[in-house]
Amino acid sequence: MNNADNRLQRVVIVGGGAGGLELATRLGNQLGARKKAEITLIDARMTHIWKPLLHKVAAGSLNSYSDELNYVAQANWNHFYFQPGKMSHLDRQQQLITLEATHAANGQELLPERTLPYDILVIAVGSHSNDFGTPGVKEHCLTLNSREQAEQIHTQFISAYLKAQGADDLAEQMNIAIVGAGATGIELAAELHYAAKVMTHYGMNSIKPENVIITLIEGGDRVLPALPLRISKGVQAQLDKLKIHTLKSHIVKNVSEKGLETNQGKFVKANLKVWAAGIQAPDFLGQLGELETNRINQLVVKPTLQTTQDDNIFAIGDCASCTLINKKNETYTVPPRAQVAHQQANLVARSIINRLQGKSLETFVYRDYGSLISLSSHTAIGNLMGNLTGNVMLEGFLAKMLYISLYRLHQVALHGKWRTTLIIIKDLLERTTRPRMKLH
């Protein structure tokens, strides 16, 4: 439906993560290509990489430059517009968003501060780890929220090997501490464990795999506290097998250059420290157009995924707090997971199409299809949930293939089946011409 002046409705999506980019692609093909709406995607970066892959980038087992997707190219292929920028302000009365000025690495201004009008706004800016105000985290810990941060971890990991290579003592030891034994922390620990073995294979044997000491620190009483107990037990058994240390019921109270101190008086020595605990939405959401937020800056949304203060503004993914009622008539908050962002993007796409046609909006129904945890090349563990399968525990090759398929499904949403098939063939061919991990 167009305005009285026959102007196309302007749909602006802020955030090019999994949910935002899938939404822009779908609306571009269904509305933009048919000149039924003008779709614009905003992101501070120029390229997209699927966030669940960042642990592989950090360990070097994935070359981010090969697997990243350029927003400009994706927009051109799928009939939407892309604008680089970071949202800083919202004027709900005038229906305008403000984008910060964009600068080059040398400080030169590339794009000035500017405003962008919208009729429908979708905020999909994701989340980052939450340091809970712990002293020393910002100064001494790396995080895993973006490709740049993942590459920082990889650079420190490789630098430690290069430095040890020139040392006289070949019994060098690397101490790695990862705070948070959720999916991100565990997958990173397993990937770094595998990377230590690969480094020896390529002759970087100044640090033996057994001298790479990896410690996971978790405030809860078990690893993967948000997932079913039997998955937690299965993953714990594999971590023990890999000799990855786990400190449970330990809360980090201070971080220094030499290591981390917990509330139980334990000091964990570490020269590589990664904070992967908790989530928090970006700070600017807390002061955005007087929209309702919770204590971790997430935008509170209704079951239609519209914000509680403005029906023209939707929020999806990790930056949204959505409370639903289950079959037992109990309220619960939808978890911050990739499958949630995917399902919410699909719903909002249908809702925007329905709205432009004058139809009513659907409400969000979260379908939990289970969880899968990858332990690098070693194994994968998880459960598969559905009407046909029930709740089935998986481990080993089948679980690993299903884990890989999650990324392929994301690629299908962005590229379609034919192009995704070509990408898979390309990836298989490149395995014979590339080292098993990035060595620089």
SSE arrangement:
Layout: E1 9-14, H1 18-32, E2 37-43, E3 47-48, H2 54-59, H3 64-67, E4 69-70, H4 71-77, E5 81-84, E6 87-91, E7 96-99, E8 102-103, E9 109-111, E10 114-117, E11 120-123, H5 137-140, E12 142-143, H6 147-165, E13 174-179, H7 183-201, E14 212-218, H8 229-241, E15 245-248, E16 252-255, E17 259-262, E18 267-269, E19 272-275, E20 299-301, E21 306-307, E22 310-315, E23 320-325, E24 331-333, H9 338-356, E25 370-375, E26 379-386, E27 390-395, H10 397-415, H11 417-430
Parallel strand pairs: 1-2, 1-11, 2-5, 11-22, 12-19, 13-14, 13-19, 14-15, 20-23
Antiparallel strand pairs: 3-4, 6-7, 7-10, 8-9, 16-17, 17-18, 21-22, 23-24, 25-26, 26-27
Looking at this protein, list some descriptive labels:
single chain, alpha/beta, FAD/NAD(P)-binding domain, 6-stranded mixed beta sheet, globular
